[in-house]
Amino acid sequence: MPKAAFVYHPDLSRHVLREDHPMKPRRLQLSYELLEAYGAFGQPNALLVPPRMATEEELLLAHDQEYIRAVQRISAGEAEEDLTRYGFSPWGDNPPYPGMYEAACLSTGASLVAAELLLSGTVPTAFSISGGLHHAARGRASGFCVFNDPAVAIASLVQQGLRVAYVDIDAHHGDGVQQAFYESDDVLTISLHEWGRYLFPGTGETGEIGSGAGTGYAVNVPLFPYTGDEVYVWAFQQVAPPLLAAFRPDVLVAQLGVDAHYTDSLAHLQLTTAAYYTVVEQLLGAAPRVLCLGGGGYDLGAVARVWTLEYGLMLGATWPDQTPQGYRERYGVAQLGDGAPPELEESTVRQTRAFAERVVEDLRHTVFPLHGL
Would you kindly state where each structural domain of the chain is located, as residue ranges? Predict the structure, then answer.
């Protein structure tokens, strides 16, 4: 059976961005507890590994020193003339809070630990659920993300001479990671997301294909609101597998945000656990080494269920659909899967399919030929 690492420690779950903030790190603890209830970490091929703090030198792989210093000062409660200059606001998406720098360094370090486990040959697959914070830019916070751990981890792999593919299935466009490698042909970024006309950050059109040496190495699959399992999986299969096969990455980094789930309150896609299972199963076979990261997800129960299913896939294990009694009684989560998908009107299905078909056709004309397809 394949060996798979899981990078986690309760310290990753303890900070609070703001009491009313939708990003609740407690979801990491719920995911860990569900896996523990299933006996996941007692599996002979499971490896539970603690994170470490990312160093300032490592943060510089994706961020400006001025910004890193600003985060340190803001985190320590030192006066900052203009928080908005760095993307922070007490009542906005990115509120400053005590210990913010340490919390962001720990989640970034967790993803670096996962990358190091792959590099050392300890495991072929590693899952850092606290990672996937894909919006942060070089010099500012964005979209609940202080440091861009995917970009840091990818840059560390590229430093070792590896070709890296990044596939992002978060409902929101992976703009920060795309921008970090927009001019590079060492990194192929593929993002499937809700169309930016309807959702933050408003980017991720098919015409964003990279520039210079990176032309053709940024790939975007925007999807119409209320896209469900069938159309989503079809679009994924039309785009990601052929491009990954052509690129032949040494390492695949997969951002596995759960906010495309139909119960999530911050987006409008309509995925179920079945779609996540199908997509992640295919991603795990797309490269010899796979680094999986968390990401968005604001229905805490859905996040725990999906990431539990996905880590099971990484281990080659299947969990019973009925959740363990203790967990079920504590959190009210009775089943691992969703059962019947949400009912979508036929007109909605037709609209989402027609939109996805246009997107795929566009990419076949613009990006595919650049990869010999």
Answer: 4-371
The full DSSP string for 293-338 is E-----SHHHHHHHHHHHHHHHHT----SBPPHHHHHHH---BSS-
* DSSP annotation of 22: S
CA 74 from centroid of its chain's CA atoms: 26
Which contiguous run of DSSP H or E holds residue 226?
none
What six digits make up the tokens of 163?
């070709």
DSSP-assigned letter for residue 343 = P
**Phi-psi category of 143—alpha, beta or left, where left has phi over 0 and alpha has psi -120 to 50?**
left
Q: What are the backbone dihedrals phi and psi of residue 49, each rounded to the nearest 5 degrees, phi first?
A: -125, 135
Residues with active-site annotation: 135
CATH architecture of 4-371: 3-Layer(aba) Sandwich (3.40)
**Is residue 173 within 8 Å of residue 201, measured between CB atoms?**
yes
User: Which ranges of the chain does DSSP label H, i.e. alpha helix?
Assistant: 26-37, 56-59, 65-75, 100-119, 149-159, 175-180, 229-247, 273-284, 300-315, 325-331, 346-366
Average pLDDT over residues 286-295: 98
What is the Cα–Cα distance from 364 to 373, expressed in whole angstroms?
8
| CA dihedral of residues 263, 268, 274, 277 (deg, nearest 10) | -110
Return the structure tokens found at 321. Answer: 């659909």
Amino acid identity, residue 179?
Answer: Q
Cβ atoms 326, 39 nearer than 8 A: no
Specify the pLDDT at position 339.
Answer: 82
Tell me what the mean pLDDT of segment 50-61 comes to. 98
Give backbone dihedrals phi and psi of 219, rounded to 5 degrees, phi first. -130, 130
Rounded to whole angstroms, the Cα distance separating 149 from 290 reads: 15
127-158 pLDDT tens trace: 999 999 999 999 999 999 999 999 999 999 99
The Cα 298–Cα 259 span in angstroms is: 6
